[in-house]
Amino acid sequence: MRSANMRKKLILIAAAAMIAVLMTGACGKKKEISLSPEDMGTDKEIYEKAKKRMKGNPEKARMLFKEVMHLYPDSIYASRAKIGVADSYFRQKDAASLVMAASEYQEYVNLYPNSPDAVYAKYRIALCYLRQMKKAGRDQTNTYQAIKALENMIKQYPDTQEAEEAKKQLEKARQRLALHYFEIGRTNFKMRAYMGAVYRFKQVIDDYPEFQRNDHLFFLTGKCYYAMRDYNSALSFFQKIVNSYPKSRYLGKAAAMIKDIAQIQTRLEEKEKIAKRDQK
Asked: How buried is residue 166: exposed, middle or buried, by Cβ count under 10 Å (0-12/13-18/19+)?
């Protein structure tokens, strides 16, 4: 009798454990989204329902937009729904969704190149890349793609509000690339690879003259030339800080370097005079 009761207890414990495992697995699964008869209606009605769902449930909104495209392919709401599908991915913000969003926006542009919303779609493509930009020092593929997309959009739609916004975003992307090359140069500087550092610093100077940390850039470039004993080149960069950045944190250091170089050049001139005198 005692053995039978023990077996029952073990069976109940095992059953409870199995239910707990199943419940845990069910909770861990993503909730499935489906459409109900209440979601249906005319093309306009489904489209409006999708727009209302966009903020709280972009996946449900996407299903509704696709339903409009499927049921009413010739409706004006079908093309708007195509934009809605792209927007629903864009709103989710994760990398995979942004890739899908860019693809959907591009499909819209291909299907409706003369639509008033084409400029919106092109701008959103650029924003998809912008949102995936990585920090300076890491892979900048998305930054390059964003710059290319923004420049093309501005060129194609120069007199639009989106173009004005794109110019601001373009500046942000260019600053990211400039900082990227600056950080590579600074790493080379720390490793005393001065030629490599100068190469990267000059790349920033030539390609990104609007770089927001130019005073730091000029100071490190001057330090590289100083280390390589190219005092005239070093002097020119330190002088730029003194002349153009009176509030820079590197102003005092640049002035000190100018004074140091002047003393070095004076000593070199004196040595040269003595050498010439000795040759006579």
From this structure: buried
